[in-house]
Design brief:
Layout: E1 2-7, H1 10-21, E2 25-30, E3 35-37, E4 42-44, H2 47-55, E5 59-60, H3 68-76, E6 81-85, H4 93-96, E7 103-107, H5 119-125, E8 130-137, E9 147-154, H6 161-185, H7 217-226, E10 233-237, E11 240-253, E12 261-264, E13 269-272, E14 277-286, E15 292-293, H8 294-300
Parallel strand pairs: 1-2, 1-6, 2-5, 6-7
Antiparallel strand pairs: 3-4, 7-8, 8-9, 10-11, 11-14, 12-13, 13-14, 14-15
Helix pairs in contact: 1-2, 1-6, 5-7
């Protein structure tokens, strides 16, 4: 079976690597155009492009599928199946109609829950106990296609988005291979999604960063871990804004108002939150500084309590 693969970030790179090493016939790899980064505005390859180039797979980076020449180029590849993983572009119907077996997507949620751009982040931000990867057929609607298979996994209470994404990438890679084989064998299932149960996971923004200390302890922790690696939670501490990378529970309670700085311990900086709970900030980053243990930072930069 001849495959065209479309993806951009690390989770997509892991899936591509698995398909390649499992011996699938990959006609071409589509990924987003190179992006300029840092002060020198040097063009940076996506993780998918970097891997594809390293193993000699042809790479295509169209700006848009509205261009007739781009669509004709894809048709000329004669794919039997298009596999999409976090590509970052919406495929129009005329692209979806090209492959013999259609287009499939590995979506990092238990569909129809958390359709959209940020399913991994929102599974944590929404305090979910589990998530998963859904293999689905692509349609013109956003993550609305028929489900082929869902593989679920529990979410650890302290797992960050980065850590969870890493685990899900390997689940998605195995599922992509198994799904492609099932489609070729004619054994793949099609189960329509229940529209009434659909929820959405929009893109994140920096406006979400400030911590609301009036929330209960676990919700504050979920906020912090859900925003790693971007945009990262923030808190104003003694008049300065910090990025907050890790917050943990304590056994202590307090009658102080949420957000009150309570004590500096070997673990870090204790802060009052909702319901009288006490959390401890254990890892942070000052403006212009580096990410480090909170106790080490405040030992060198005394804070008023």
């Amino acid at each position: 079976m001849r495959i065209v693969y479309m993806g951009t970030p690390e989770i997509a790179k892991v899936c591509l690597e698995k398909l390649y090493t499992e011996g699938f016939d990959i006609a071409a790899v589509y990924t987003k155009p190179d992006t300029p980064k840092n002060r020198g505005m040097k063009l940076i390859y996506s993780e998918v492009k970097a891997y594809a180039v390293s193993v000699g797979l042809p790479v295509v980076q169209p700006q848009t599928f509205k261009d007739d020449a781009v669509v004709e180029q894809l048709k000329a590849l004669a794919p039997d199946l298009i596999i999409v993983v976090a590509y970052g572009k919406i495929l129009p119907q005329r692209v979806l109609d090209i492959p013999k077996y259609g287009c499939i997507n590995m979506h990092a949620s238990i569909l129809p829950e958390l359709r959209g751009a940020g399913p991994v982040q929102w599974s944590i931000l929404n305090h979910c106990a589990q998530t998963g990867v859904t293999a689905m057929y692509l349609t013109a609607g956003m993550d609305e296609g028929d489900i082929i298979e869902i593989r679920k996994t529990p979410i650890d209470p302290m797992e960050t988005t980065s850590e969870l994404m890493g685990r899900l990438s390997h689940i998605a890679a195995a599922l992509a291979c198994d799904t492609a084989r099932a489609i070729e064998a004619g054994t793949a299932k099609r189960t329509p999604q229940e529209e009434s149960k659909a929820t959405y996971a929009p893109m994140l923004s920096k406006a979400m960063s400030p911590i609301d200390w009036s929330e209960c302890g676990q919700y504050v922790i979920d906020h912090v871990r859900g925003l790693i690696p971007w945009p990262v939670a923030t808190a104003e501490l003694d008049g300065n804004t910090f990025k907050i990378f890790r917050v943990e529970k304590t056994e202590k309670t307090t009658d102080k108002a949420p957000g009150t700085l309570l004590a500096l311990t070997k673990r870090g900086l204790e802060v009052a939150c909702g319901g009288g709970e006490v959390l401890v900030i254990t890892e942070l980053q000052a403006e212009g500084g580096k990410r480090m243990a909170a106790s080490a930072y405040f030992n060198g930069h005394p804070i008023k309590l």
